[in-house]
Each structure stands twice: as C-alpha cells, then as structure tokens.
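Researcher: I'd like a candidate sequence for this fold, 109 residues long. If you have to choose between options at a position, lean toward the conservative one.
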C-alpha cells in the first residue's frame, strides 16, 4: 500500500464514521422529541386537571368551555411539536449531507 492509498483509506473510514455519528444524532434527536412531546402532554393534562379541581373545590370558577379550549390548545401544540420534532426535522436535516441521504419516514401505504 502506498502512502496515498493509506491516506485515502483513512479519509474514507473517517467519512463513514462521521455518517454513522450523524445517523446516531438523528435518532437521539427523535428520542428527545418524543420525550418532549410526552412531557408536554402529561403537563398539559395535569394543568387541566388541576384547574378543574380548583374550580370544583373553591370559589375560583373557570367555565367548562374555557377548560375545553385550553385542552384543545394543548392538544394542537403537542401534536404539532411531535410532528415537527419526530418526522419533519430529522427528514430535513438528513438531506444536508452532500452524497448521503438518510430517510427516517414512517411507512407509506
């Protein structure tokens, strides 16, 4: 092996290592996106439950439709965050590679 071939092989191995690292980062990003979506849903549920309990047990009153509107707003926010963080952001970031394309899409029927 000549020195040039050795350097070329070393560069190829480094490129493959970087591609593997990039793929690992995309998976980590999706995992944290799922954790954030789940946490936002649980916190929103606790907030609605807390406000409903406060309204039922004290003189502080919240209209039932206000609770429904807040629940709907939380639902839309959590769904949007989950969609963007779990599907769109990794798909967009995967296309930044020059010759590489990583697809993290749900199966299409």
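Model: Candidate sequence:
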């Amino acid at each position: 092996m000549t020195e040039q071939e050795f350097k070329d092989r070393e560069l190829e191995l480094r490129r493959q290592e970087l591609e593997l690292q990039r793929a690992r980062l995309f998976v980590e990003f999706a995992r944290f996106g799922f954790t954030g979506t789940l946490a936002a849903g649980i916190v929103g549920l606790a907030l609605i439950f807390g406000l409903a309990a406060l309204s039922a047990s004290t003189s502080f009153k919240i209209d039932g439709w206000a609770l429904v509107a807040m629940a709907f707003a939380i639902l839309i926010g959590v769904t949007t965050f989950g969609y963007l963080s779990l599907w769109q952001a990794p798909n967009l970031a995967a296309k930044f590679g020059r010759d590489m394309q990583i697809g993290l899409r749900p199966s299409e029927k």
